[in-house]
Amino acid sequence: MSPLGAGVALIAASIMLAGCGGGLNPFKKKKEEPIGDSRPPNVIYGEAETLLNEQDYKDAAQKYEDVDVNHPYSTEARKAIVMSAYAYYKNGKYPEAISAGKRYLTLHPGTDEAPLAQNIIAMSYYDQVLDPKRDQTNARESLNAYETLVQRYPSSRYAAEAQNRVRILRNLLAANSMTIGRYYLRDHDYLAAINRFRDVVTEYQRTEQVEEALMRLTEAYMALGIVNEAETAAAVLGHNFPNSKWYQRAYSLLQKSGRAPQEHAGSWITETFRGSGNPA
Fold first, then answer.
1. Quick check: 259 pLDDT over 80?
2. Among 9, 115, 200, 260, who pairs with 213 as Cys (CB 3.0-4.6 Å)?
3. Is 28 exposed, middle or buried (0-12, 13-18, 19+ CB in 10 A)?
4. How many CB atoms lie within 10 A of CB 43?
Protein backbone atom coordinates (compact mmCIF):
# COMPACT_ATOMS: atom_id res chain seq x y z
CA MET A 1 0.00 0.00 0.00
CA SER A 2 1.28 3.45 -0.83
CA PRO A 3 2.05 5.93 1.99
CA LEU A 4 -0.90 8.10 0.91
CA GLY A 5 -3.33 5.17 1.03
CA ALA A 6 -2.07 4.10 4.43
CA GLY A 7 -2.64 7.61 5.75
CA VAL A 8 -6.25 7.72 4.57
CA ALA A 9 -6.96 4.32 6.11
CA LEU A 10 -5.50 5.43 9.41
CA ILE A 11 -7.71 8.56 9.54
CA ALA A 12 -10.83 6.50 8.74
CA ALA A 13 -10.01 4.00 11.46
CA SER A 14 -9.51 6.79 13.98
CA ILE A 15 -12.95 8.24 13.21
CA MET A 16 -14.62 4.84 13.62
CA LEU A 17 -12.85 4.23 16.93
CA ALA A 18 -13.88 7.66 18.21
CA GLY A 19 -17.49 6.85 17.40
CA CYS A 20 -17.34 3.52 19.15
CA GLY A 21 -15.68 5.04 22.17
CA GLY A 22 -18.53 7.51 22.82
CA GLY A 23 -16.77 10.60 21.41
CA LEU A 24 -18.22 13.08 18.92
CA ASN A 25 -19.52 11.49 15.77
CA PRO A 26 -19.52 13.97 12.85
CA PHE A 27 -22.05 11.85 10.97
CA LYS A 28 -24.56 11.72 13.80
CA LYS A 29 -27.44 14.27 13.63
CA LYS A 30 -27.54 16.79 16.45
CA LYS A 31 -30.57 16.41 18.67
CA GLU A 32 -33.05 19.27 17.99
CA GLU A 33 -33.97 21.53 20.90
CA PRO A 34 -37.71 21.85 21.65
CA ILE A 35 -39.30 25.05 20.36
CA GLY A 36 -41.75 27.09 22.43
CA ASP A 37 -43.39 26.29 25.73
CA SER A 38 -45.09 22.90 25.63
CA ARG A 39 -46.51 23.12 29.14
CA PRO A 40 -50.30 23.19 29.51
CA PRO A 41 -51.85 26.58 28.62
CA ASN A 42 -53.44 27.00 32.04
CA VAL A 43 -49.99 26.76 33.65
CA ILE A 44 -48.52 29.50 31.44
CA TYR A 45 -51.65 31.61 31.89
CA GLY A 46 -51.37 31.24 35.66
CA GLU A 47 -47.79 32.47 35.57
CA ALA A 48 -48.91 35.48 33.53
CA GLU A 49 -51.59 36.30 36.10
CA THR A 50 -49.04 36.09 38.91
CA LEU A 51 -46.72 38.48 37.08
CA LEU A 52 -49.62 40.85 36.47
CA ASN A 53 -50.57 40.84 40.14
CA GLU A 54 -46.94 41.57 40.99
CA GLN A 55 -47.11 44.54 38.59
CA ASP A 56 -44.43 43.01 36.40
CA TYR A 57 -46.35 44.15 33.33
CA LYS A 58 -43.56 43.64 30.82
CA ASP A 59 -43.09 39.95 31.61
CA ALA A 60 -46.82 39.44 32.12
CA ALA A 61 -47.51 40.67 28.59
CA GLN A 62 -44.92 38.27 27.21
CA LYS A 63 -46.38 35.34 29.16
CA TYR A 64 -49.86 36.09 27.85
CA GLU A 65 -48.41 36.22 24.36
CA ASP A 66 -46.78 32.83 24.99
CA VAL A 67 -50.18 31.29 25.71
CA ASP A 68 -51.55 32.48 22.39
CA VAL A 69 -48.42 31.53 20.42
CA ASN A 70 -47.98 28.03 21.85
CA HIS A 71 -51.64 27.10 22.37
CA PRO A 72 -53.65 29.21 19.90
CA TYR A 73 -56.72 26.95 20.03
CA SER A 74 -56.95 26.65 23.79
CA THR A 75 -59.67 28.30 25.85
CA GLU A 76 -56.99 30.32 27.66
CA ALA A 77 -55.61 31.75 24.41
CA ARG A 78 -58.66 33.91 23.74
CA LYS A 79 -58.51 35.78 27.03
CA ALA A 80 -54.72 35.87 26.91
CA ILE A 81 -54.88 38.20 23.90
CA VAL A 82 -56.94 40.85 25.67
CA MET A 83 -54.95 40.45 28.87
CA SER A 84 -51.72 40.99 26.96
CA ALA A 85 -53.26 44.21 25.68
CA TYR A 86 -54.02 45.24 29.25
CA ALA A 87 -50.49 44.39 30.43
CA TYR A 88 -48.99 46.36 27.54
CA TYR A 89 -51.21 49.32 28.43
CA LYS A 90 -50.13 49.21 32.09
CA ASN A 91 -46.51 49.11 30.95
CA GLY A 92 -47.00 52.21 28.79
CA LYS A 93 -46.54 50.24 25.57
CA TYR A 94 -49.47 51.90 23.84
CA PRO A 95 -48.91 50.78 20.22
CA GLU A 96 -48.61 47.17 21.40
CA ALA A 97 -51.73 47.53 23.56
CA ILE A 98 -53.72 48.97 20.66
CA SER A 99 -52.51 46.25 18.29
CA ALA A 100 -53.42 43.45 20.72
CA GLY A 101 -56.80 45.04 21.47
CA LYS A 102 -57.66 45.37 17.79
CA ARG A 103 -56.54 41.80 17.13
CA TYR A 104 -58.82 40.55 19.87
CA LEU A 105 -61.81 42.43 18.46
CA THR A 106 -61.11 41.07 14.99
CA LEU A 107 -61.02 37.48 16.24
CA HIS A 108 -63.60 37.64 19.05
CA PRO A 109 -65.94 40.63 18.54
CA GLY A 110 -68.96 39.26 20.38
CA THR A 111 -67.38 37.92 23.56
CA ASP A 112 -67.61 39.14 27.15
CA GLU A 113 -64.11 40.62 26.97
CA ALA A 114 -64.83 42.67 23.82
CA PRO A 115 -65.81 45.84 25.78
CA LEU A 116 -62.56 45.56 27.74
CA ALA A 117 -60.53 45.31 24.53
CA GLN A 118 -62.31 48.37 23.10
CA ASN A 119 -61.71 50.29 26.32
CA ILE A 120 -58.00 49.43 26.30
CA ILE A 121 -57.70 50.79 22.75
CA ALA A 122 -59.49 54.01 23.73
CA MET A 123 -57.43 54.46 26.92
CA SER A 124 -54.18 53.85 25.05
CA TYR A 125 -54.92 56.71 22.67
CA TYR A 126 -56.32 58.89 25.46
CA ASP A 127 -53.17 58.63 27.56
CA GLN A 128 -51.20 60.03 24.62
CA VAL A 129 -53.39 63.11 24.18
CA LEU A 130 -51.47 66.35 24.54
CA ASP A 131 -52.58 69.94 25.00
CA PRO A 132 -54.88 71.68 22.45
CA LYS A 133 -51.96 73.42 20.74
CA ARG A 134 -50.36 70.13 19.63
CA ASP A 135 -51.28 67.63 16.92
CA GLN A 136 -54.51 65.93 17.93
CA THR A 137 -54.32 62.65 16.02
CA ASN A 138 -54.41 60.62 19.23
CA ALA A 139 -57.37 62.66 20.49
CA ARG A 140 -59.34 61.88 17.33
CA GLU A 141 -58.45 58.20 17.53
CA SER A 142 -59.42 58.10 21.19
CA LEU A 143 -62.72 59.88 20.47
CA ASN A 144 -63.54 57.37 17.73
CA ALA A 145 -62.67 54.46 20.02
CA TYR A 146 -64.78 55.77 22.90
CA GLU A 147 -67.72 56.55 20.63
CA THR A 148 -67.51 53.00 19.27
CA LEU A 149 -67.49 51.67 22.83
CA VAL A 150 -70.63 53.64 23.72
CA GLN A 151 -72.44 52.58 20.55
CA ARG A 152 -71.53 48.90 20.60
CA TYR A 153 -71.45 48.23 24.33
CA PRO A 154 -73.85 50.75 25.95
CA SER A 155 -74.49 48.47 28.95
CA SER A 156 -70.85 47.71 29.70
CA ARG A 157 -69.12 48.84 32.88
CA TYR A 158 -66.96 51.17 30.76
CA ALA A 159 -69.80 53.06 29.03
CA ALA A 160 -70.31 55.82 31.62
CA GLU A 161 -66.63 56.77 31.72
CA ALA A 162 -66.50 56.55 27.93
CA GLN A 163 -69.34 59.08 27.62
CA ASN A 164 -67.52 61.44 29.95
CA ARG A 165 -64.33 61.17 27.94
CA VAL A 166 -66.23 61.71 24.69
CA ARG A 167 -67.32 65.10 26.07
CA ILE A 168 -63.78 65.93 27.17
CA LEU A 169 -62.28 64.97 23.82
CA ARG A 170 -64.89 66.85 21.81
CA ASN A 171 -64.17 70.00 23.79
CA LEU A 172 -60.43 69.44 23.37
CA LEU A 173 -60.69 69.03 19.60
CA ALA A 174 -63.02 72.02 19.31
CA ALA A 175 -60.56 74.10 21.35
CA ASN A 176 -57.78 72.98 19.05
CA SER A 177 -59.70 74.12 15.96
CA MET A 178 -60.46 77.44 17.64
CA THR A 179 -56.80 78.00 18.52
CA ILE A 180 -55.74 77.44 14.91
CA GLY A 181 -58.68 79.46 13.58
CA ARG A 182 -57.79 82.47 15.74
CA TYR A 183 -54.21 82.28 14.48
CA TYR A 184 -55.39 82.40 10.86
CA LEU A 185 -57.78 85.23 11.70
CA ARG A 186 -54.99 87.33 13.23
CA ASP A 187 -52.91 86.58 10.13
CA HIS A 188 -55.79 87.78 7.90
CA ASP A 189 -56.02 84.34 6.27
CA TYR A 190 -59.79 84.47 6.45
CA LEU A 191 -60.62 81.44 4.32
CA ALA A 192 -58.38 79.18 6.42
CA ALA A 193 -59.91 80.65 9.57
CA ILE A 194 -63.44 80.03 8.31
CA ASN A 195 -62.61 76.38 7.61
CA ARG A 196 -61.49 75.90 11.21
CA PHE A 197 -64.51 77.64 12.71
CA ARG A 198 -66.73 75.68 10.36
CA ASP A 199 -65.28 72.45 11.79
CA VAL A 200 -66.40 73.51 15.25
CA VAL A 201 -69.92 74.36 14.08
CA THR A 202 -70.38 71.16 12.07
CA GLU A 203 -68.44 68.58 14.11
CA TYR A 204 -68.47 69.89 17.67
CA GLN A 205 -71.70 71.84 17.79
CA ARG A 206 -72.62 70.77 21.31
CA THR A 207 -69.37 71.99 22.86
CA GLU A 208 -68.82 75.25 24.69
CA GLN A 209 -66.66 76.46 21.79
CA VAL A 210 -69.51 76.84 19.31
CA GLU A 211 -70.61 80.28 20.55
CA GLU A 212 -67.26 81.87 19.84
CA ALA A 213 -66.99 79.96 16.56
CA LEU A 214 -70.21 81.59 15.30
CA MET A 215 -68.99 85.03 16.33
CA ARG A 216 -65.62 84.44 14.61
CA LEU A 217 -67.45 83.35 11.48
CA THR A 218 -69.34 86.65 11.58
CA GLU A 219 -66.01 88.46 11.87
CA ALA A 220 -64.25 86.52 9.10
CA TYR A 221 -67.16 86.72 6.64
CA MET A 222 -67.46 90.46 7.22
CA ALA A 223 -63.75 90.86 6.54
CA LEU A 224 -64.24 89.08 3.20
CA GLY A 225 -67.37 91.08 2.37
CA ILE A 226 -69.58 87.99 2.44
CA VAL A 227 -72.28 89.82 4.35
CA ASN A 228 -75.11 87.29 4.00
CA GLU A 229 -73.11 84.57 5.76
CA ALA A 230 -71.92 87.02 8.43
CA GLU A 231 -75.51 88.06 9.17
CA THR A 232 -76.64 84.43 9.24
CA ALA A 233 -73.87 83.39 11.65
CA ALA A 234 -74.87 86.20 14.01
CA ALA A 235 -78.57 85.36 13.71
CA VAL A 236 -78.03 81.67 14.49
CA LEU A 237 -75.84 82.67 17.41
CA GLY A 238 -78.57 84.95 18.73
CA HIS A 239 -81.32 82.35 18.32
CA ASN A 240 -79.42 79.66 20.18
CA PHE A 241 -77.44 81.72 22.70
CA PRO A 242 -79.29 85.04 23.14
CA ASN A 243 -77.49 85.90 26.39
CA SER A 244 -74.03 85.04 25.16
CA LYS A 245 -71.27 87.65 25.29
CA TRP A 246 -70.25 86.39 21.84
CA TYR A 247 -73.65 87.32 20.44
CA GLN A 248 -73.26 90.84 21.79
CA ARG A 249 -69.91 91.11 20.03
CA ALA A 250 -71.31 89.76 16.76
CA TYR A 251 -74.27 92.10 16.96
CA SER A 252 -72.03 95.13 17.58
CA LEU A 253 -69.75 94.15 14.71
CA LEU A 254 -72.63 94.09 12.24
CA GLN A 255 -74.13 97.27 13.65
CA LYS A 256 -70.95 99.20 12.91
CA SER A 257 -71.51 98.47 9.21
CA GLY A 258 -75.22 99.25 9.34
CA ARG A 259 -76.13 95.57 9.30
CA ALA A 260 -78.16 93.37 11.62
CA PRO A 261 -78.36 89.61 12.34
CA GLN A 262 -80.69 87.82 9.93
CA GLU A 263 -80.76 84.42 8.31
CA HIS A 264 -80.44 83.97 4.57
CA ALA A 265 -81.76 81.02 2.60
CA GLY A 266 -79.20 78.46 1.50
CA SER A 267 -76.63 79.23 4.19
CA TRP A 268 -74.67 76.19 5.35
CA ILE A 269 -74.86 77.56 8.90
CA THR A 270 -78.65 77.46 8.96
CA GLU A 271 -78.73 74.00 7.40
CA THR A 272 -76.18 72.68 9.88
CA PHE A 273 -78.18 73.78 12.92
CA ARG A 274 -81.47 72.57 11.51
CA GLY A 275 -79.93 69.19 10.67
CA SER A 276 -78.67 68.78 14.22
CA GLY A 277 -82.06 69.44 15.77
CA ASN A 278 -81.09 72.85 17.09
CA PRO A 279 -83.14 75.91 16.17
CA ALA A 280 -81.60 77.98 13.43
1. yes
2. 200
3. exposed
4. 12
